[in-house]
């Protein structure tokens, strides 16, 4: 099965590294024109150059609703449309509940949940006019099963699932599909700091006995953005090596 995204414009938040960068690169490889988004505009432009094609870099903080709205307007002006929106940008500020500060709760919910809301709200208008759109929100298995010391992160990622299902129902009649990918433990900058013992302990929880890679997530995202997934909406795709089956 060949995934062809030729003629489509994709925007991937948090795409200067990790999972977001791999999703952007994979979609560009499938023929999409891609907007690379990060808080560091120079870094975003650098990644766009590496990915190639007609990729362009943009600076935006998804926690700022005004910046998100301006970002969507800029992408639609520069590319002529916005067809695929991937909300990948996220923030963690971990602590046990009794030590979790209001600011840490608010920062994570704002970046992870309100940022996605603002992006979808801004992008949906153009998608509705064109009667075609793909919204892919990156959640986490933590949003399904919780995790000690991550009540704020878990709440934001669980909220993202409920938000996506509501969006899927609201926009289905306009051929705008909305789905969630919930990654498990993935090889990123965050996990690279794990000790050998911690890595072994994590792998022991996973039936496939390994951490995932950004490519494992990117392949699912490209599929959901394609016509092969034209009859799928409001679903949660757990990509975790079987950890929470």
In short:
This protein has 245 residues and is an alpha/beta fold.
What do you see in this structure?
- The two termini are 26 Å apart.
- Helix 1 packs across helix 8.
- By secondary structure, the protein is of the alpha/beta class.
- 46% of the residues lie in helices and 15% in strands.
- The protein contains eight helices and seven strands.
List the helices and strands and how they pair.
Elements: E1 9-12, H1 18-29, E2 33-38, H2 41-51, E3 56-59, H3 65-79, E4 84-87, H4 102-130, E5 133-138, H5 142-145, H6 151-171, E6 176-183, H7 196-204, H8 214-225, E7 236-239
Parallel strand pairs: 1-2, 1-4, 2-3, 4-5, 5-6, 6-7
Question: What share of the residues does DSSP label as strand, in percent?
Answer: 5-15%
Termini separation comes to 26 Å
Major β-sheet, in short?
7 strands, parallel
Could you tell me the mean pLDDT?
Answer: 96
Flag low-confidence runs.
none
Class computed from helices, strands and strand pairing: alpha/beta
**Helical coverage, percent range:** 40-55%
How many individual helices?
A: 8
* Secondary structure tally: strands: 7
How big is the Rg?
17 Å
Order of helices and strands: EHEHEHEHEHHEHHE
What general form does the structure show?
globular
Q: Going across the major beta sheet, what is the strand order?
A: 3-2-1-4-5-6-7
């Amino acid at each position: 099965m060949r995934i062809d995204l030729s003629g489509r414009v994709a925007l991937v938040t948090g795409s200067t590294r990790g999972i977001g960068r791999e999703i952007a690169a994979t979609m560009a490889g499938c023929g999409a024109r891609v907007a690379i988004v990060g808080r560091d505009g120079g870094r975003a432009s650098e990644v766009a150059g590496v990915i190639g094609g007609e990729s362009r870099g943009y600076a935006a903080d998804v926690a700022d609703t005004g910046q998100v709205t301006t970002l969507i307007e800029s992408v639609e002006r520069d590319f002529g449309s916005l067809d695929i929106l991937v909300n990948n940008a996220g923030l963690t500020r971990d602590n046990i509940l009794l030590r979790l500060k209001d600011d840490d709760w608010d920062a994570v919910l704002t970046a992870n949940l309100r940022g996605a809301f603002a992006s979808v709200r801004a992008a949906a208008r153009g998608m509705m006019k064109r009667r075609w759109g793909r919204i892919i929100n990156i959640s986490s298995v933590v949003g399904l099963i919780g995790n000690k010391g991550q009540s704020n992160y878990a709440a934001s990622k669980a909220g993202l699932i409920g938000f996506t299902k509501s969006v899927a129902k609201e926009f289905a009649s306009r051929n705008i599909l909305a789905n969630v990918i919930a990654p498990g433990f993935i090889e990123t900058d965050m996990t690279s700091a794990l000790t050998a013992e911690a890595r072994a302990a994590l792998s022991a929880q996973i039936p496939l006995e390994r951490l995932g890679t950004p490519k494992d997530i990117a392949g699912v995202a490209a599929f959901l953005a394609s016509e092969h997934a034209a009859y799928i909406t409001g679903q949660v795709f757990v990509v975790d090596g079987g950890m929470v089956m």
